[in-house]
Amino acid sequence: NGANEKNLMMNGNWKLVYASEDVTRSSPFFWAFRKATKGIFQPLPILPSQLAEAVFAITDGIPFAKKGQATQRIELDSSGDGFLISMVEVEL
Which residues contact 90 (CB under 8 A, 6 or more apart)? Predict the structure, then answer.
């Protein structure tokens, strides 16, 4: 049927072409991390008060870090079962 064919059309490697924030946040992992830590605050006044934003500020401050292409690999079968792998090239 048509839905099964559409699932299979998603298979492959996809490059991130737009992100409203840093490419390292394009992964579903970071979306889930933000959701899981929503409402948790950290005590240091020099960092953002939200825990997730504080962690991101620390990792964004790593000197000489260079970020490259963000990609996602999608593998679905005709039933819609499968996996997603998110990758970001980072050079230190």
Answer: 24, 65, 66, 67, 68
Q: Which tokens in the block code for residue 80? A: 């819609």
User: pLDDT per residue over 2-58, tens digit each?
Assistant: 667 777 888 999 998 988 888 888 788 888 999 999 999 999 999 999 999 999 999
Helix (H, G, I), strand (E, B) or coil at 13: strand
Encoding tokens for residue 20?
């409203």
Token look-up 């005590």 returns 43
Rounded to the nearest 10°, the torsion over CA 17, 22, 24, 27 is -60
The label of the residue with tokens 């990758």 reads 87
Of 28 and 87, more confident: 87
* pTM confidence score: 0.66
User: Helices marked H in the chain — which ranges?
Assistant: 2-9, 28-36, 51-60
Helix (H, G, I), strand (E, B), or coil: what is residue 33? Answer: helix
